[in-house]
Amino acid sequence: MKANFFANMKISRKLVAVFLATSVIAMLVNVFIYINLNRALEKINQVFASNISLNELQDNLNQIHTGLTGYLETKGTDDLELYYASTQSMNMLMKDLNNSVIDNNVKLAERDIRYMLETYLKTADEAILAKRGRNIDEYTAKYNECSKIKDYLNTYIYSVNNEQFRTNSTNYNALVNSLRYTEIMSMLIFAVASVMNILLIIILTNTITRPLTRLSAKAEEISQGSPENVEPLEVISEDEVGKVTRAFNEMLASIKDYIARIRTQLITQSEMKEKNLLMETHLKDAQLKYLQSQINPHFLFNTLNAGAQLAMMEGADRTVEYIRNMADFFRYNVKKSSETVKLSEEIELVDSYMYILNVRYAGEMLFEKDIDESLLDVMVPSMIIQPLVENSIKYGIKDLEPGEGKVTLSVYREDKMCCIRVSDNGIGTDEEIIEKIMNHEKRPSETRGVGITNVMARLDLYYNNKEVFEMKSRKNEGTHVTIKIPLEDANV
User: At how many degrees (to 10) do helices 77-94 and 105-132 cross?
Assistant: First the structure.
């Protein structure tokens, strides 16, 4: 979370943050070094504090004795003032001396010195009083006692001071070593802090320069002339560089989209041309295959009409009906082969075709219809049902016993589809053949009927390769072929 927050900061704020961070680190290091050096110096001062205190006591004692001597000899006021001032200083110094029994030789020595100083000051005060009372013998005796105490104290303080100095010297050496260690540690910490500052600066620089370098590399790739192969950059921050990267990605996406649209338009135009050519080819092929001849249509229709009139004159009503159905069948093939027609017209063509076959086979072909009349006006490509019915008869029920074969035409609505199903109860088709038919793996001459292949190809072209054709079969149970016309494409 913190890393994301830093990455999303503005570059100016990043610079300020890093400057403050390095400044704080440097300040903390200096404070650390300052505190440790002061502590070391204080410890060194404390080592010799006892020696200094003993020296002050000794100096003060000598000043008191000098003032006492001068006053007893001359009774001068200056000597008396020196005595009292020194006595006052001595009392202040004596407050810091130990006054209790303790298991410490230094503290016990301080206690002894304190008691001797108190005795000295008391005896000195008595000598001053005796001097003022002009009692020569008494102040002389007191003075001599003070001199002895002073000499003894000087000797004792000197001895304690020397002993304390030797002890403090050892401590001093240890403190000096400690001070050197502190100095080394301080320098080490300072070096680590400096390295951290350098790393912070490098990291900040990388957060700014690395995205710019990646952006420059991507721009170079685009300039090479293949922007569609350039992947967008990952946006890793929301600072100024991140915003520029996001804008770059949007520009790259726009370029790719534009190229894709141009390419799609070119492909679509090419496919349309190819589709039109294929449509024309298949329609011509269908017309030729179904007509099976190059007979002049007008001559054919005139001949059929003449035959119908002749049969009518002879009273052959069934022959008339047969010839009329044949004429209607061929007329539809000639006129409608290149058009879309209503579904009702396709069903009428199938009715004519079945009538012709039943006349030919003496009514052996059973044909049933189940039609949803609301779908009769649906527009479909011409000649898509009759070839399926022909295929069912030719390869499904033709070899069955007379009266057993049946073909069913169903037209129904399913979801948003107009479904046209041609079913038979014939011998069925092998799965391998169905798969090859559905995958367009065989040439028309090799498939089970020319018509069904032609119908599939035309449906693919007309409905842009949508899956509108379905074929299912079981051995000895029949075949079901279904065409699903999308109602939104049916112009109803």
Answer: 150
Please give the C-alpha separations between residue 49 and each of 40, 41, 57, 165, 283, in angstroms, as whole numbers.
Answer: 14, 12, 12, 10, 122
Q: Token pair of 492, please?
A: 């109803």
Q: How many C-beta atoms surround the C-beta of residue 135 within 10 A?
A: 14
Instruction: Spell out where 331-464 has E strands.
Output: 340-342, 366-371, 379-381, 406-414, 417-424
105 token code pair: 């030789």
- Bridge partners of 417? 414, 486
Q: Which residue has the tokens 């050892």?
A: 170
Spatial separation of the C-alpha atoms in residues 425 and 413, rounded to whole Å: 23
> If DSSP codes are grouped into helix, strand and coil, which group holds residue 452?
helix
DSSP-derived 3-state class of residue 401: coil
pLDDT tens digits, 267-300: 877 777 776 676 666 655 655 554 444 444 544 5
Q: Most confidently modeled of 326-335, 407-416, 456-465?
A: 407-416
Whole-number pLDDT of residue 95: 80
Collect all residues with Cβ–Cβ distance below 8 Å to 122 and sequence separation of at least 6.
none
How far apart (Å, rounded) are the C-alpha atoms in residues 349 and 330? 9
Kind of pairing, strands 478-486 and 469-474? Answer: antiparallel
CB-CB contact of 475 with 427 (8 Å):
yes
How many Å apart are CA 187 and CA 427, to the nearest integer? 100
Closest CA to 125 of 139, 110, 115, 114: 139
DSSP states of 44-102 as a string?
Answer: HHHHTHHHHHHHHHHHHHHHHHHHHHHHHHH--HHHHHHHHHHHHHHHHHHTTS--S--
What is the distance between the alpha carbons of residues 212 and 234, in angstroms, rounded to a whole number?
12
Distance (Å, whole) CA 85 – CA 78: 10
Instruction: Give residue 7's pLDDT band: very low, low, confident or very high (50, 70, 90).
Output: low
Rounded Cα–Cα distance for residues 35 and 175 (Å): 15
Tell me how far apart the alpha carbons of residues 89 and 459 are, in angstroms, rounded to a whole number: 126
Task: Evaluate if pTM is beyond 0.85.
Answer: no
Contact between 215 and 248 (Cβ < 8 Å): yes
Rounded Cα gap, residues 199 and 205, in angstroms: 10
Output the pLDDT for position 112: 80
Which of 114-128, 139-153, 154-168, 410-424 ranks highest by mean pLDDT? 410-424
Residue 428 in contact with residue 448, Cβ under 8 Å?
no
- Backbone dihedral region for residue 418 (phi beyond 0: left; psi -120 to 50: alpha; all else: beta): beta
Taking only the tens place, the pLDDT of each residue in 369-423 is 999 999 999 998 888 898 898 888 888 887 777 778 889 999 999 988 899 999 9
Distance of CA 306 to the CA centre of its chain: 83
CA distance 410 to 424: 11
